[in-house]
Design goal:
With about 550 residues, the chain is of the alpha/beta class. The protein has two domains: about 350 residues, Glycosidases (TIM Barrel); about 110 residues, Golgi alpha-mannosidase II (Immunoglobulin-like), CATH 2.60.40.1180. It has 13 helices and 19 strands. The strands form four sheets. The protein has an eight-stranded parallel beta barrel. Helix 7 links the parallel strand 2 and strand 3. Helix 6 packs across helix 7 and helix 6 packs across helix 13. It is globular. The N terminus is likely disordered.
């Protein structure tokens, strides 16, 4: 398929990858990967919280799997996945989805969603002061406090719909091993404990009733070695056979026994949990965190992929896995991902800095933590809209993470941000949904003084210029000497007569406005006469017609082919 590569990501074809191919516990934790292409080629670094085991143990787990592979063209091989997988069209068009971290860690609501790890490590004393010593009050004792008594899935789904999101992915299980669904393969689940209800099942029904796609994320592979208590605390709990060393909770914590046999059992159960999620809820996306990155896990991951995709064919649904870095790239090169949509964690930290053709998404928290904490700071709508526009201009999809409280409610700040985003998308969604990147993603950045940054998207024959600054900063025009002065016009430098492009600009309008705008064009850029008042208080969008646009850059594999 034809594609356009921005000058900003031209090094794509000359990418250099540095990565270790070593497997097993001797892998250097500090290994690094280098890439000259934004968002490309970052292979696994260290264990990333995968079980520190060997290929032989994984193969033994695969051999012990009781689940029969459903009929279909997908086989658990890279060749079969490559031949049969296609990125879902609904994902290509969606551009905006919601992620969610909700679980036991929202009860203490302290520091972050890794509270289980920290209460046996960095924050041992804080936990003792607030809940008691670990032998009397362990992480398991948060389960009855996680009641979700105010959880209203219909209200949640209505809020998600109003936000303008097109798909929703709650965390069905985080690193702490507690399943939020009605499970027959683990007793540590929300139906039997805590809320005493099928949180995932109830939410799936409500979200789909709103016409949205529904997926689930599973971080459970990271549980096997998530907790690593200091020697003195471990000795104390072991001597008392309490909490981490209570035999009744051994399969919840996975601390007391980390033998090969225990790891094999853990991996078989991890597979069974994924099969259960697939069969019970028919997710439109199954999302895995970093823990599945290691190559020695490939035999197990391939079985999950083949099972999921064959089941989806029987349902008549387009679905996809979504994973990070090189998880589903057998050569550790995420430009060669097979059977999965690449996900990047946090905008700016690891996501593409330029256009990446194909299909990709970035998960970004709405606040200062992923899971709810009592002192978290929540981003306002404008900052999220800017991130959405920037991501989509680079051909990506924004997966915005929400942080509900333990009682099943969303803090008002998060609701306000979502509703404001939704109101903006009601007016400007034409420039987001179903779009693709232009030949360049934009001009200017938020730190450039005196010039409003612009991000470009394309749909059909229309070019959209999303102006990121607030309205007072719009009226800037460049004089021949390139100085910036106040004026009634807005300048887009990338659309000057000195730029090589086909066609002629025929019309410019402001989304949400009723009239065509007047404009002139010279070697300094396109100068647009803006109206006296804006259609809203957030970034505004100019729709430009007449120029010949580049074709979509999506690919069936999701890779920048």
């Amino acid at each position: 398929m034809s594609r356009i590569i921005s000058p900003f990501c031209a090094p794509l074809l000359g990418l250099v990858l540095i990565a270790s191919a070593a497997l097993g516990p001797t892998m250097a934790r500090a290994q690094t990967a280098a890439s000259t292409m934004a968002g490309g080629g970052n292979a696994p670094t260290g264990y990333d919280m995968a079980p520190e085991t060997r290929l032989e143990v994984v193969e033994a787990a695969v051999a012990a799997l009781p689940t029969k592979m459903p009929a279909g063209p997908f086989q658990p091989t890279w060749e079969s996945l490559k031949q049969n997988y296609r990125v879902p069209q609904w994902f290509v068009e969606a551009k905006f989805g919601l992620f969610m971290h909700w679980g036991l860690y929202t009860v203490p609501a302290y520091h972050n969603e890794w509270y289980e790890k920290h209460m046996y490590g960095t924050y041992i004393q804080w936990h003792r002061e607030h809940f008691g010593p670990q032998d009397k009050f362990g992480y398991k004792d948060f389960i009855p406090l996680f009641t979700a008594e105010k959880f209203d899935p219909g209200a949640w789904a209505a809020l998600f719909k109003k936000s303008g999101a097109r798909f929703v992915i709650p965390t069905a299980q985080h690193h702490d091993n507690f399943a939020l669904w009605d499970s027959a393969v683990t007793p540590f689940n929300a139906k039997q404990m805590g809320p005493k209800r099928d949180l995932i099942g109830d939410l799936a029904k409500a979200v789909r009733a709103q016409g949205l796609k529904f997926g689930v994320s599973n971080h459970g592979i990271e549980n096997f070695q998530f907790i690593n208590p200091p020697a003195d605390l471990a000795a104390e709990l072991k001597a008392k056979q309490a909490d981490l060393y209570d035999p009744q909770w051994a399969d919840f914590y996975h601390v007391a026994d980390r033998s090969d046999a225990a790891c094999e059992k853990f991996l078989v159960n991890w597979f069974a949990r994924n099969v259960e999620l697939i069969d019970k809820y028919q997710p439109d996306m199954l999302w895995f965190d970093n823990g599945v990155d290691q190559r020695y896990l490939d035999p197990l991951k391939l079985r999950i992929a083949a099972y999921y995709y064959n089941r989806a064919l029987a349902w008549g649904k387009e679905v996809s896995l979504s994973t990070k870095k090189g998880a589903y790239a057998p050569d550790n090169e995420n430009l060669h991902t097979i059977g999965s949509i690449i996900d990047f964690e946090k905008i700016g930290a690891r996501s593409p800095a330029g256009i990446r053709p194909g299909a990709w998404q970035v998960d970004e928290p709405i606040g200062s933590t992923w899971g709810y904490t009592s002192d978290m700071k929540v981003s306002d709508a404008r900052s999220i809209i800017v991130k959405l526009a920037d991501t989509v201009s680079k051909n990506g999809t924004l997966l915005l993470n929400l942080s509900p409280k333990a009682d099943g409610t969303f803090p008002q700040e998060q609701q306000d941000t979502l509703l404001e985003i939704g109101r903006w998308l009601e007016v400007n969604g034409e420039a987001i949904y179903g779009t693709h990147n232009w030949t360049k993603f934009g001009e200017g950045d938020l730190s450039e003084k005196g010039f409003a940054p612009v991000r470009f998207t394309v749909k059909g024959a229309s070019l959209y210029a999303i102006i990121l600054n607030s309205w007072p900063a719009l009226n800037k025009v460049a004089e021949p000497a390139q100085s910036l002065v106040q004026g009634p016009e807005f300048l887009i430098r990338s659309l000057g007569t000195d730029q090589a492009m086909e066609g002629r600009i025929e019309s410019i309008s402001l989304l949400g406005g009723s009239d065509r705008l007047t404009f002139t064009r010279d070697e300094h850029g396109l100068k647009v006469q803006m109206p006296a008042t804006p259609p809203g208080k957030y970034p505004v969008v100019l729709k430009i017609t007449g120029l010949k646009m580049n074709p979509p850059t999506s690919t069936s594999s999701g890779n920048p082919e």
